[in-house]
């Protein structure tokens, strides 16, 4: 099972490809969750964690996590020998479950007009077409998920093609991707994938438990900020940022319990949030409850990070 490999870029993910007419095409396999579009790759391709990027916080009308996808190719004009870059960008549309496609070309050829075409890969029918007059053209703003081919041509001769397929994560893909992101501390991306999966696979206990764990770990990173916000609340009576994320953890936890009853994840998270709510006798039940492998691995990661954080605190106090 492939997973979207973590990218080292906070917004567009770009792969520069030197290509020629003699090279075979590769199909871009993309997955979408909310406003995040990522390539489906094997976990062995995992890179470094992404830089911090804006994400939606619970209870506030802030921007959702937006990760467009971009791929480019460097080609050579056969008539002039001049090199040029052609790029395809795919991002979420303003309409739910729809995409915006943009193609850019740098530089634009002089004295000639190249043509852009978007075709359904299954039927071969043209969905959209237009001349490439500007350095960036919007090919479609309301494209449904599917399998397509974007082509740039000149006088009926193909210059460059981008075959791609894009659709939401399947349940196994969502679980696999969330695990991968959590392993690299990319909590924003894990939450985006799991929130989307929770609407598509609402009866999956694994999705909801992983979501609660991702929310809890994301909020736990900002405990100092939470303390600061509590002071601000006393002064201004407002809730923001990390405080809202803690509320989000409690909200997801409540849904997990109401839908599936108590679980290993729900008991441990509740104990972490409010120790008095889960006495030792109640916590002892975790040894009797079943737990899936994805949730177990996430729990092990969480425990390791909590232990590391505790060790750092002790080291700081001793210094």
Present the secondary structure layout.
Layout (H helix, E strand, L loop, with lengths): L15 E3 L9 E6 L1 E5 L26 E2 L1 E8 L6 E10 L6 E8 L7 E7 L5 E7 L3 E8 L2 E9 L2 E12 L2 H13 L3 H14 L4 H16 L2 H14 L4 H20 L3 H10 L6 H4 L9 H26 L1
Parallel strand pairs: 1-5, 2-12, 3-4
Antiparallel strand pairs: 2-3, 5-6, 6-7, 7-10, 8-9, 8-11, 11-12
Explain what this protein looks like in three dimensions.
There is one protein chain. It contains eight helices and twelve strands. It is an alpha+beta fold. The protein has two domains: 16-168, Sandwich (Immunoglobulin-like); 202-318, no CATH class. Helix 3 (205-220) packs parallel to helix 8 (293-318). The chain is elongated. Mean pLDDT is 74; it is low at 7-24, 42-63 and 233-241.
């Amino acid at each position: 099972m492939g997973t979207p490999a973590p990218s080292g870029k906070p917004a567009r993910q770009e792969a520069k490809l030197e290509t020629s007419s003699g090279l075979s095409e590769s199909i871009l396999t993309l997955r979408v969750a909310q406003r995040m579009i990522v390539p489906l790759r094997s976990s062995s391709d995992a890179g470094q964690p992404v830089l911090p990027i804006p994400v939606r916080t619970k209870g506030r009308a802030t921007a959702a996590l937006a990760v467009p996808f971009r791929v480019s190719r460097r080609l050579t004009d056969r008539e002039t020998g001049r090199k040029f870059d052609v790029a395809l960008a795919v991002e979420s549309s303003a309409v739910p479950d729809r995409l915006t496609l943009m193609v850019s070309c740098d530089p634009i050829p002089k004295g000639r007009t190249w043509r852009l075409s978007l075709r359904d890969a299954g039927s071969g029918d043209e969905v959209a077409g237009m001349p490439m007059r500007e350095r960036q053209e919007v090919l479609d703003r309301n494209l449904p998920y599917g399998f397509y081919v974007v082509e740039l041509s000149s006088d009926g001769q193909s210059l460059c093609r981008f075959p791609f397929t894009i659709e939401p994560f399947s349940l196994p893909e969502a679980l696999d991707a969330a695990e991968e992101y959590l392993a690299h501390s990319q909590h924003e991306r894990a939450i985006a994938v799991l929130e989307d999966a929770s609407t598509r696979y609402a009866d999956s206990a694994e999705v909801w438990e992983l979501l609660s764990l991702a929310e809890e770990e994301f909020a736990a990173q900002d405990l100092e900020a939470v303390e600061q916000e509590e002071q601000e609340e006393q002064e201004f009576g407002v809730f923001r940022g990390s405080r809202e994320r803690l509320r989000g953890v409690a909200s997801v936890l409540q849904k997990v319990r109401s839908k599936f009853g108590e679980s290993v994840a729900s008991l441990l998270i509740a104990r972490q949030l409010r120790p008095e709510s889960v006495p030792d006798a109640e916590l002892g039940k975790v040894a009797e409850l079943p737990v899936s492998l994805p949730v177990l691995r996430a729990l092990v990661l969480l425990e390791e990070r909590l232990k590391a954080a505790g060790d750092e605190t002790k080291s700081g106090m001793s210094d």
